[in-house]
């Protein structure tokens, strides 16, 4: 049973010692008693006490040396470079890997040289035409020289921020409000980049500007609606321009094709007319000897051939000049067209079904074919 359990005997080892109530011993008293014993043993032992003290001091020094040596190991990551300072002064630059530096003598500052860092700036600025705009831009940069980044300026990131803010205000102050808010944003971005490069170049800070982003540019709230309308109108203008260019790209090849087709047709017509003319010349050259041998026969044959060609392309009309004063005209081409239409109507009626008979006032059946009736009437009238 433990000495301090409830209901047990009070066997506290720090009480009732020497007949007195006392608490735990003070640590200072313990160490004094311990060192006192070592001192007495050293005085009594002579040379053996001195040797024990020397061994203990040597072990202590050895332990301290081991701890000091182990504490000097450090690691530089792949994306970093180490800047080594010896007694606070630049000593060297180390590559990635496991390294060792004497503690309390050298100190190492790791610098990331691969990551792309961001730095932004924003604020309300006055333009050249005395208008206020709110501009926000962001810079992306990377450290290329760890030594210059560490020692060129006291606070490199703060210096970059101030340089970016100064470049933005300078460029916006020398630009018009419409250029900053509308179609001149890209020019403004490029000018800010160039101005920032010119500002930080004398300091040689060991950084490289990767990109410059134009995040936002807004007019004052009082005129924001009007500027939104202006921006929308400019966007419509650009859209119309793109549509017109697309139409031009579409219609131009078609027009070129038509031009080429017309050129080819003209060339073909030229060749056809030339060949026809050459054929006519050849025909007349062949006809000339025949005409010289028999002029009358050749003239009549040419006349008949010409009339045959002319009459072959005109309507034919039969005229009956006999049998009285009445003259009946029978246009044969119209009659042929009616016969063809009648044949097509009969075929359609046959496919549709029964054809209803047609009777006259006397009850006699008549032929429903208009062509047949026309032919019969025409024949009777002609006779």
Automatic annotation (TrEMBL):
InterPro entries: Band7/mec-2_domain, Band_7, Band_7/SPFH_dom_sf, HflK, Membrane_HflK_N, Stomatin_HflK_fam. Residues 362-372 have a biased composition (Polar residues). Gene3D superfamilies: Band 7 domain. One of its GO terms (biological process) is proteolysis. GO terms for molecular function: peptidase activity. It is a single-pass membrane protein. It is found in: Membrane. The chain crosses the membrane at residues 55-76. Signal peptide: none annotated. The keyword Acetylation does not apply. Keywords: Hydrolase, Membrane, Protease, Transmembrane, Transmembrane helix. SMART domains: PHB. It comes from the Bacteria. Residues 71-231 form the Band domain. Residues 1-26, 338-383 are annotated as: Disordered. One of its GO terms (cellular component) is membrane. Pfam families: Band_7, HflK_N. CDD domains: SPFH_HflK. HflC and HflK could encode or regulate a protease. HflC and HflK may interact to form a multimeric complex. Belongs to the band 7/mec-2 family. HflK subfamily. This is Protein HflK. It comes from Alteromonas portus.
């Amino acid at each position: 049973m433990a000495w301090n359990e409830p209901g047990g005997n009070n066997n506290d080892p720090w009480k009732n010692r020497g007949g007195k109530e006392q608490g735990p011993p003070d640590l200072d008293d313990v160490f004094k008693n311990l060192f006192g014993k070592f001192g007495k043993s050293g005085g009594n032992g002579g040379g053996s006490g001195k040797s024990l003290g020397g061994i203990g001091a040597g072990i202590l020094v050895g332990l301290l040396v081991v701890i000091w040596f182990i504490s000097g190991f450090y690691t530089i990551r792949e994306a970093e470079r180490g800047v080594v300072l010896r007694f606070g002064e630049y000593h060297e630059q180390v590559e990635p890997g496991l390294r060792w530096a004497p503690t309390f003598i050298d100190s190492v500052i790791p610098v990331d040289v691969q990551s792309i860092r961001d730095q932004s700036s924003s604020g309300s600025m006055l333009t050249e035409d005395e208008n206020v705009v709110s501009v926000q831009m962001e810079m992306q940069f990377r450290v290329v020289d760890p030594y210059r980044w560490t020692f060129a300026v006291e606070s490199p990131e703060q210096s970059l921020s101030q340089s970016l803010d100064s470049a933005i205000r300078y460029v916006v102050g020398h630009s018009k409000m419409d250029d900053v808010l509308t179609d001149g944003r890209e020019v403004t971005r490029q000018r800010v980049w160039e101005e920032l490069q010119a500002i930080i170049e004398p300091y040689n800070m060991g950084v490289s500007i990767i990109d410059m982003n134009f995040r936002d540019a807004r007019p004052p709230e009082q005129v924001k609606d009007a500027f939104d309308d202006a921006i929308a109108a400019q966007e419509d203008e650009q859209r119309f321009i793109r549509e017109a260019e697309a139409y031009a790209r579409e219609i131009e090849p078609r027009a070129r094709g038509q031009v080429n087709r017309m050129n080819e047709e003209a060339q073909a017509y030229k060749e056809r007319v030339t060949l026809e003319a050459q054929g006519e010349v050849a025909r007349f050259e062949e006809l000339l000897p025949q005409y010289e041998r028999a002029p009358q026969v050749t003239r009549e044959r040419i006349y008949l051939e010409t009339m045959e060609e002319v009459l072959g392309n005109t309507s034919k009309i039969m005229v009956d000049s006999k049998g009285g004063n009445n003259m009946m005209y029978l246009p044969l081409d119209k009659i042929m067209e009616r016969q063809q239409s009648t044949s097509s109507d009969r075929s359609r009626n046959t496919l549709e079904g029964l054809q209803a008979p047609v009777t006259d006032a006397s009850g006699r059946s008549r032929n429903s074919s208009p062509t047949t009736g026309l032919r019969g009437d025409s024949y009777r009238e002609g006779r």
